[in-house]
Amino acid sequence: MSSGFVKTKDGVDIFYKDWGPKDAQPIMFHHGWPLSSDDWDNQMLFFLSHGYRVVAHDRRGHGRSTQVDTGHDIDHYAADASAVAEHLDLRQSVHIGHSTGGGEVARYVAKFGEPQGRVAKAVLVSAIPPIMLKTERYPGGLPISVFDGLRKALADNRAQFFHDLPSGPFYGFNRDGAKVDQGVILNWWRQGMNGGAKAHYDGIKAFSETDQTDDLQAITVPTLVMHGDDDQIVPIAASAEISVKLLKNGTLKVYKGFSHGMLTVNADVINPDLLAFVKG
């Protein structure tokens, strides 16, 4: 099967793609909010051309997976990812997560992947850990009002909100001199609108308020942390710079001037770096 569904323990159908030689080293991609596995098209084709087995799934409530009204939290995200990895019996795999998908990777590797002996390496791209919200422990985070604003914009007019976000800060298209790519904006909108409003609404709490300090500290496999220093969605000082200090075997790679969506608009730079880490 090159694609299909796996049913989770709580009865949710999770859509996945599984391309390439089944005896090759697997790379599993975890998408960001509010997108789908399609956000990894470029990377999947790239690694497929280098002989790898590539796997990606749609998070519950996102893309082609069931639009359930429960379980939109990091624990369920990680358990759903594990259901895919176990169903396909992925071993010696590299797990690469973008944004909220990075939080999913951290929880998956710490709770399922390493204990089951399935993971070789991990990559956190523009990722949310340790926590986006400003707390006593992490005063450099963002105030709750930011996330309340996201919730209001989504509830008021999700279609417009999902056009404005990629048109502006997500890809840095609001910066002076930026080359705006309408196809990228429309593809973001398409992916977002294919998912469920309830999943997206609840997901804001999941990606902003989940403290993943313990997850990061539990991970022992080599972990690459990649982040743009002009990320307007997940500020680097509140995420990557802290995460790499919590990881036992972490490496930080900073990209000058790159946006939150660098895996898409700067794939020509990101992909070779990912490949070098996977092969290294």
UniProtKB/TrEMBL annotation:
Residues 26-262 form the AB hydrolase-1 domain. InterPro entries: AB_hydrolase, AB_hydrolase_1, AB_hydrolase_fold, Epox_hydrolase-like. GO terms for molecular function: hydrolase activity. It comes from the Bacteria. The keyword Cell wall biogenesis/degradation does not apply. The keyword Hydrolase applies. Keywords: Hydrolase. Belongs to the AB hydrolase superfamily. Bacterial non-heme haloperoxidase / perhydrolase family. This is Alpha/beta fold hydrolase. It comes from Bosea massiliensis.
